[in-house]
């Protein structure tokens, strides 16, 4: 790692703490520069604007989240168990970084920059591939009947995201910076019911 790369990683690490505590809209580049004890000009040398810095922070934590979802499926003994472990990983992520609203990128702020929309789509595609491979393994070992794993994975992921986002918005409001235990439990219970329902339709 070069010295420049090391400095960028440090900035991302410090910015993550600031964003996860205050959210993107209430965080300024001055705040982050002060946290780092560097000048604003030095910060802008590495990141031209707050969106560019936030994007790098988002890529970092979402990449880590994808790895956790992958491991949750690899360690599962059945399809329902794996999918619920995947949901738990997503819920833990949502609770940890809720102030950033990175779990859905739904607040108006993100629609001003197409890079966030593109990032959300890339993450969605990667999550779908992870689920697809998990379903393929279930078919190979005889747990699931023959089915189109790709289409089923797309459907499952869309349902997971849809229920999560809709419950979040209905219970907390579209721009809420709070995520209560009641909301998390509501999302968890709804998705468990969906997983049970779908599994009963696709198991062998």
TrEMBL record:
GO terms for molecular function: DNA binding. Residues 5-65 form the HTH tetR-type domain. InterPro entries: DNA-bd_HTH_TetR-type_CS (IPR023772), Homeodomain-like_sf (IPR009057), HTH-type_TetR-like_transc_reg (IPR050109), HTH_TetR (IPR001647), Tet_transcr_reg_TetR-rel_C_sf (IPR036271). It holds the Pfam family TetR_N. Keywords: DNA-binding. Residues 28-47 bind DNA. This is Transcriptional regulator, TetR family.
């Amino acid at each position: 790692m070069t010295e420049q790369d090391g400095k960028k990683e440090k900035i991302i690490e410090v910015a993550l703490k600031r964003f996860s505590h205050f959210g993107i809209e209430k965080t300024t580049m001055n705040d982050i520069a002060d946290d780092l004890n560097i000048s604003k000009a030095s910060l802008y040398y590495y990141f031209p604007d707050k969106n560019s810095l936030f994007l790098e922070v988002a890529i970092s934590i979402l990449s880590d989240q994808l790895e956790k979802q992958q491991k949750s499926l690899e360690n599962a003994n059945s399809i329902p168990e794996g999918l619920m472990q995947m949901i738990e990983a997503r819920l833990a992520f949502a609770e940890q970084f809720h102030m950033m609203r990175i779990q859905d990128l739904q607040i108006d702020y993100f629609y001003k920059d197409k890079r966030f929309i593109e990032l959300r789509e890339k993450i969605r595609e990667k999550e779908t591939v992870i689920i697809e491979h998990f379903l393929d393994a279930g078919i190979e070992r005889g747990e699931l009947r023959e089915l189109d794993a790709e289409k089923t994975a797309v459907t499952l992921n869309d349902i997971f995201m849809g229920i999560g986002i809709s419950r979040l918005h209905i219970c907390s409001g579209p721009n809420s910076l709070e995520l209560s235990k009641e909301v998390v439990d509501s999302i968890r219970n709804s998705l468990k019911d969906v997983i049970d329902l779908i599994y009963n339709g696709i198991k062998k």
